[in-house]
């Protein structure tokens, strides 16, 4: 899952990015409101973490314009102010939730998961055929046997499981599993797909990860 963080406080942004990456999210960070709006309009994010006090264009202005542009990503507002008026103003503009600084990372993560669950991203356990992935425990199983995954393998498998029977291009996969620094000229997507196949499909007669030649990959339970 890919998250956009729009936050001008470098320490706060680094704190959020590090924590989310440890949870297998791909994270883009920008420090300016106008730039954050451009990122949100040009890319498909599963959620946006948006600070209100931003240079150039504040978070409420950004949020208002994103909603007017039809951007549907759930938005979690961050602010150092804790008045009821500020919270109501943010929610009225279109925020999905509101978090006051300072905050514990666990609370931010919990709120983020709730937002993505509302958008269809938070099923307790993802299942397809005899393959399952539990986001809470971060454990994957095939045929009841636990499969050990690296951080990126987990993120890739989660994205496939959230989009079964859908052909996913290499570009789509890269955008949701890696951040904006991803080099589109590399074959890293294919490399990680092969890693997953070794762990998920190799020992089973029914193969789940299929190549769509010239396009990308699809998770399906048929040859």
Tell me about this structure.
The protein has 223 residues and is of the alpha/beta class. The chain has 2 domains: 2-118, Response regulator (Rossmann fold); 126-219, Winged helix-like DNA-binding domain superfamily/Winged helix DNA-binding domain (Arc Repressor Mutant, subunit A). The protein contains 8 helices and 12 strands. It has helices at residues 10-22, 33-42, 59-68, 84-93, 105-118, 151-161, 170-177, 188-200, and strands at residues 2-6, 26-30, 47-51, 75-79, 97-100, 126-128, 131-134, 139-142, 145-147, 168-169, 209-212, 216-219. It has a 5-stranded parallel beta sheet, with helices on both faces. It is elongated. The protein starts with a strand and ends with a strand. The mean pLDDT is 88.
Summarize the structure.
With 223 residues, the chain is α/β, with parallel strands linked by helices.
β-sheet strand percentage: 15-25%
Number of helices: 8
The topology string of helices and strands comes to EHEHEHEHEHEEEEHEHHEE
By secondary-structure content and strand pairing, the structural class works out as alpha/beta
- Rg: 18 Å
Estimate nothing, just give the exact number of structural domains. Answer: 2
Give the name of the CATH superfamily of the largest domain.
Answer: Response regulator
Instruction: List low-pLDDT spans.
Output: none
Shape: elongated
CATH class of the largest domain: Alpha Beta
Number of strands: 12
Mean pLDDT: 88
Distance between the termini: 27 Å
Strand order of the largest sheet: 2-1-3-4-5
Known CATH architecture of the largest domain: 3-Layer(aba) Sandwich
Q: Percent of residues in helical segments?
A: 25-40%
Q: Could you describe the largest sheet, including whether it forms a barrel? A: 5 strands, parallel
CATH topology of the largest domain: Rossmann fold
């Amino acid at each position: 899952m890919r998250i956009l963080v729009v936050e001008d406080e470098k320490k706060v942004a680094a704190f959020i990015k590090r924590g989310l990456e440890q949870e297998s999210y791909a994270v883009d960070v920008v420090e300016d409101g106008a730039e954050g709006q451009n990122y949100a309009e040009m890319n498909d994010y599963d959620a946006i973490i948006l600070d209100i006090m931003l240079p150039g264009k504040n978070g409420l202005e950004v949020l208002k314009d994103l909603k007017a542009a039809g951007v549907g990503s759930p938005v979690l507002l961050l602010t150092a102010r804790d008045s009821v008026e500020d919270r109501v103003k943010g929610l009225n503009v279109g925020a999905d939730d509101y978090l006051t600084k300072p905050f514990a990372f666990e609370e931010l993560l919990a709120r983020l998961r709730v937002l993505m669950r509302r958008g269809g991203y938070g099923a307790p356990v993802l299942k397809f055929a005899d393959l399952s992935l539990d986001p809470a425990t971060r454990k994957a199983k095939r045929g009841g046997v636990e499969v050990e995954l690296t951080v990126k393998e987990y993120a890739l498998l989660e994205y496939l499981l959230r989009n079964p029977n859908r052909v996913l291009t290499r570009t789509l996969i890269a955008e949701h599993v890696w951040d904006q620094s991803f080099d589109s000229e590399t074959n890293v997507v294919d490399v990680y797909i092969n890693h997953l196949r070794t762990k998920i499909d190799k020992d089973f007669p029914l193969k789940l990860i299929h190549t769509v030649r010239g396009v990308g990959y699809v998770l399906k339970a048929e040859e």
